Amino acid sequence: MLRKFTVLFLLFFAGASVLAPRSAAQSSSSSNPAADSPQGAQPTQSTASDRSQQSPGSTPPPAQAADKDPVQPTTQDQNDKKGTSNDRLFFALPNFLTLENAGQVPPLTSKQKFGVVARGSFDYVLYPWYAFLSGLSQWEDSEPGYGQGAEGYAKRFGAAFADGTIENFFTGAILPSVLHQDPRYFQLGHGSIMHRTLYAMSRNLITRTDSGKNQFNYSEVVGGALAAGVSTYTYHPKSHVFSTPNPPYYRFVASDRTLDNTLSVWGTQYGYDTLTLVIKEFWPDIRRKVKHQPKMAMPEQSPELNPASK
Q1: How far is it, in rounded angstroms, from Cα 302 to Cα 308?
Q2: CA–CA separation, 4 vs 203, rounded Å?
Q3: Which residues contact 87 (CB under 8 A, 6 or more apart)?
Q4: Residue 43 pLDDT greater than 50, yes or no
Q5: Distances from the Cα of 69 to the Cα of 64, 72, 76, 85, 297, angstroms
Q6: What does the domain layout of the chain look like in residue ranges?
Q7: Helices in the chain by DSSP H: which ranges?
Q8: Each residue of 85-144: pLDDT tens digit?
Q9: Which stretch of DSSP H or E encloses residue 241?
């Protein structure tokens, strides 16, 4: 988990370096809307002669849609009709529980919560991701009880896949269904970088209920602890004695199935999830910069269903 934290940390700041130099220019241009229009341009009004040329029963021409680019994505392209997302972090990792520019959206049913978590947990991109993490683990010889070689790598791959899947289901489906909490992340999308960062970090402690109210995020905090306990005390290696021939060498590796290690795993996972939320907050901005897309307008939001307003 620490390896995932480090890799995402580096990826986030690589993306932030693309976003940050232009943030000041964006704010200055948005504060002066006249600068975006041609110099001296004035709104035109239809004259009496123009109006006289139209017959009384004629239908006025439709409004011009020159400003609307059909190629540009809309909010609906990122947020599907089921109240989840089709987005991917860094154009690869599934980001289906993040809503960008979300307005009034209905709560997810338990079936939808399990469905979207399963869709993200078994996504094809995660298999090479877990393979990469397992290779790092084998190279560092972490948890030596797994051993080396193909067998050791297979055990590490299975453990990495199980760790991620169990944690996803506990925090995104099981506890949210039992406690009626919303597992989605609602992007703030406005304000200073510090304000948005603090907002994203707070979402691991404060979440929205299915009724639209703020509540302590039991799903993340308790769900992460349960997932850490399950993984530590079940399929992770116990104490092990290694022996190597020529000359014989014996090494005892104590079991990682301790409370201290469980708390360490839970804390690392919590930090990883917090960093992921910060990345989710700024990823739409980075994505638009890469694709040269304009920012989408925020739809009308209901105060009861808008977590950013609380």
Answers
A1: 11
A2: 20
A3: 78, 95, 96, 98, 100, 283, 284, 287
A4: no
A5: 12, 6, 15, 22, 14
A6: 75-309
A7: 2-30, 48-52, 75-78, 110-121, 126-140, 149-169, 175-179, 193-202, 218-233, 259-291
A8: 899 999 999 999 999 877 678 899 999 999 999 999 999 999 999 999 999 999 998 888
A9: strand 240-244
